[in-house]
């Protein structure tokens, strides 16, 4: 068995349809937590900026959540959300995403220079318009930097779910280990890294589109 | 499978209350020590690689783009996949196979935060330091590192927590550590064991978190930490 | 003495920051480099302590080419003050000031004692010593910056726009503090600023640089104001250089009249017949109180019953002709009261006297 090549291309060809299913499952389980995490982090981050006393406790709670091992959380959740379900994997990933994104939103909003905020007030922006048209756009680069970290680690972490029966491409690691067979493991690693790279690239492109004014100063 | 809150608390009592779980080669103390050994060794190796590299890149500005890009790529490596691949290639027997993925996990946050910490130091401060006649190494050691320390420690903290959490998966390929309770519990449908293991790892991660908060308080000059809370 | 000998700084992209600069900075004097942005004034300053190395030419420090000295060693012997102070945020004020003494291996106690002495000298409350920089105002930080530069008692001080970032009131007090310190210490100071008023106020000599790093004129302030070398310097000096020039003309030539002061206890009847329309009223210790208008005097009583008009004074022998003129403009009488250092009236400089003194200045170079 160990004399065989590291990658057997014919295995990939034969199993491509099932790899594709795992890939889709992986994308969904990685993406949904990031989207939900962002949707929750935006209002919480805003609240943290408006009411400063709220921020430290929120970050404290998020730090605690962030330090909980993913595998441990998957397991504690099994009795509630079931073994081998997408929900079991996505719930903790959503919290991890929030733990990264809330500080990013707060840092982004506090990075708005005070004179810019003041002049927006002076020109008669209502608080909502000021938020949407002035503060959020300026916060975009910092928020997107947080989003890049969250996306990459989310994509990488989904595979741990394989240990509780639902890990997208992580299944290939279990499969390869049980059959002592390199090919699925290598295919899994490569696909996870490629997914992460694509996500990162898309976010960089999004930043260029959303903040054309920062392009002149070079990439962040 | 359906269990109320009382049920799960009972599981914990079953696990932690059983004296057999506190002694022998599969007892909590032994598994905890194994876990600390993997994690501590990996973190130490990662520090030996990432700290000097991050300091050098941050101080000289050389190779920054390359280092940051590779660090980001390394973040995407799935630890579980890397672990099973390396164990298949090298075989079990030593703890080296588990160290490699954990070091790969810990290097990026340490490297990136050290670099960013140094780059973020006010250029006027560098200028003043050189202008007063500090040599390059003195500027780094006496000015840049103390000022960048909060970010450097943040990188170390993130790395430590991720390593402690992720070292759990070592059990999957037959190695020890607190992950044993989780994996064995899953395999034998012994839920108290699994949950007990999960709780232990979570507690350990929290202790690491608290430990770093303490280190930060002791090591970072109040002139630096208080200035930042004002912002 | 610092000597620039045909110094040029050319960057890799071909930009010339300093072009063939030759000048001398005399020992124990303040030489100010002034000019618009892009004139190479900061570059010139930074070439002295080798923060930047010159491309061509030599900079000699007491006859030694700075390029032959190892930069850290060179810099430890030269005080350096920058715009944002650049204090180390992680160190207490006293340790910030003691930075160079520590580097030079001084005993810790001696270094700290020296730091405390300097904090006092630059006018800081010693309570500040154990604080961190973020707890100080901008002006206080700048004072610490000056104290830090002086800590190892270097003969040379380089100051790069040190007072540009503080508000005008604080800036004025920092400038005066510097002049007071310099009167005690006699350092060789190179001071960079873009503010011509600051240059004229502080400089024993002023080097005006033009964009592209060429020296336009090097002169003492009165000469600069009286005889700008060309249109560029004239324009840079601004419109009211005639008035400003008066700051450098001594008031010694000013004729004073002693017969125009009168004691507040005098009866109005004794002064009613005076030939003048205004008299300076002084108290029992001869300190000015104000001007009394002769035609509006009441029928009876003393001068204490009279409503006095505001007045201006100048210190005889210390203030310039500009000070005297300014004092005169503050009085309805158009005359200025001269006082001694204790504030006692010495006499009155009338419009005629001022006119006469101004007439002498207008033609010549003055001073």
Automatic annotation (TrEMBL), chain A:
The keyword Transferase does not apply. The chain crosses the membrane at residues 27-49, 61-83, 89-109, 138-165, 185-206. Keywords: Membrane, Transmembrane, Transmembrane helix, Transport. The keyword Transmembrane helix applies. One of its GO terms (cellular component) is plasma membrane. It is found in: Cell membrane; Membrane. Residues 23-203 form the ABC transmembrane type-1 domain. One of its GO terms (biological process) is glycine betaine transport. It is a multi-pass membrane protein. PANTHER family: GLYCINE BETAINE/L-PROLINE TRANSPORT SYSTEM PERMEASE PROTEIN PROW, OSMOPROTECTANT IMPORT PERMEASE PROTEIN OSMW. Belongs to the binding-protein-dependent transport system permease family. This is Osmoprotectant transport system permease protein.
Automatic annotation (TrEMBL), chain B:
The chain crosses the membrane at residues 38-58, 79-107, 139-156, 163-183, 195-215. Keywords: Membrane, Transmembrane, Transmembrane helix, Transport. GO terms for biological process: glycine betaine transport; transmembrane transport. It comes from Streptosporangium canum. PANTHER family: GLYCINE BETAINE/L-PROLINE TRANSPORT SYSTEM PERMEASE PROTEIN PROW (PTHR30177), POSSIBLE OSMOPROTECTANT (GLYCINE BETAINE_CARNITINE_CHOLINE_L-PROLINE) TRANSPORT INTEGRAL MEMBRANE PROTEIN ABC TRANSPORTER PROZ (PTHR30177:SF33). The lineage of its organism: Bacteria, Bacillati, Actinomycetota, Actinomycetes, Streptosporangiales. It is a multi-pass membrane protein. Residues 32-216 form the ABC transmembrane type-1 domain. It comes from the Bacteria. It is found in: Cell membrane; Membrane. GO terms for cellular component: plasma membrane. Belongs to the binding-protein-dependent transport system permease family. This is Osmoprotectant transport system permease protein.
UniProtKB/TrEMBL annotation, chain C:
Gene3D superfamilies: P-loop containing nucleotide triphosphate hydrolases. Pfam families: ABC_tran. The keyword Nucleotide-binding applies. SUPFAM superfamilies: CBS-domain pair, P-loop containing nucleoside triphosphate hydrolases. Keywords: ATP-binding, Nucleotide-binding, Transport. InterPro entries: AAA+_ATPase, ABC_transporter-like_ATP-bd, ABC_transporter-like_CS, CBS_dom_sf, P-loop_NTPase. Residues 2-237 form the ABC transporter domain. Its EC number is 7.6.2.9. One of its GO terms (molecular function) is ATP hydrolysis activity. Belongs to the ABC transporter superfamily. This is ABC-type quaternary amine transporter.
